[in-house]
Amino acid sequence: MDLELQGKVALVTGASRGIGRGIAQALAREGCDLAICARGQEALEEAAETLRGEGVRVVARAMDLTEPEAGGEFVAAAVEAFGGLDVVVNNVGGNRRKPFEETTDEDWRELFDLNVNSAFRVTRAAIPFLRKREGGSVVFISSIFGRETGGPGLSIYNTTKSAMISAARIMALELAPEGIRVNSVAPGSIRFEGGSWDRRVKEKPEEMAKFVEENLPLGRFGRVDEVANLVAFLASPRASLLTGTCIPADGAQGQSLF
Ligand SMILES: NC(=O)c1ccc[n+]([C@@H]2O[C@H](COP(=O)([O-])OP(=O)(O)OC[C@H]3O[C@@H](n4cnc5c(N)ncnc54)[C@H](OP(=O)(O)O)[C@@H]3O)[C@@H](O)[C@H]2O)c1
């Protein structure tokens, strides 16, 4: 299926490795020009070079998206380079595991800044530009743990990931009349070289084999391209009836009924 993304402009946050990089790669293969960011310059430049190999234009900005001005600057850089914006993928995010009683205001502030505020600032800055194009699309990378309890130690992570899904739904309602779609994707456990699951498998192979057996019905971790393909579809005009939804990419790992 031609996703009809050729010549569109896409912005992907946190695209120097892992899921964000895979999403940028999938969008580049569909012919999108790309704006990407991450904090580490070297890995970001290497990712940008690889993406240019797909024959698209790439703007790479090394920045920390938890800085209040960074989201606006990133959007401005994309628009300056390409003259507009069609797709926004909010991928930057991380986890802090701790029993709730031990969590501090600082822990909550830090993870809200990383998982929620960074994405909201980018999206707010992008909306005026999405409005100027036909069929803008915003995708938030949440988690299956934004949809269900997950377990002890996950109070901060789950709250931030639920917040993304919840706000995306409202954004979808507010922006639907203007033809801008807003969706979330909820990955399950995704393994890639150097990622957190890969580290855990290498550190504790037996424990992780048990985890896979008990939690992953397909008997394996998810792959980056399996999330990236879904995001590329959601970003595309082919997904024109999909807005305000959250789609798991989890091989039936999640326990949520909906
Ligand atoms: N992997 C999984 O199993 C899984 C499951 C469910 C949900 N998710 C979600 O999927 C998203 C991506 O996960 P991942 O495993 O691919 O993460 P990752 O390996 O930690 O990669 C995160 C990317 O974001 C960049 N980044 C991190 N903090 C940043 C900041 N403050 N400002 C700008 N860029 C920043 C990183 O580069 P620098 O470090 O150089 O900044 C990197 O490019 C996250 O939102 C995560 O919560 C992942």
Rg from C-alpha positions? Answer: 17 Å
Say which CATH homologous superfamily is assigned: NAD(P)-binding Rossmann-like Domain
Helix and strand element order:
EHEHEHEHEHEHHHE
Q: How is the biggest beta sheet arranged?
A: 7 strands, parallel
Q: Pairing-aware structural class of the strands and helices?
A: alpha/beta
Q: So what's the CATH class?
A: Alpha Beta
CATH architecture level-2 label: 3-Layer(aba) Sandwich
Strand content: 5-15%
Total count of helical runs of at least 4 residues? 8
State the separation between the terminal residues, measured CA to CA. Answer: 27 Å
Topology of this protein?
Layout: E1 9-13, H1 18-29, E2 33-38, H2 41-52, E3 58-62, H3 70-82, E4 87-90, H4 105-131, E5 137-141, H5 155-175, E6 181-187, H6 196-203, H7 205-215, H8 224-235, E7 246-249
Parallel strand pairs: 1-2, 1-4, 2-3, 4-5, 5-6, 6-7
Bound molecules: NADP nicotinamide-adenine-dinucleotide phosphate.
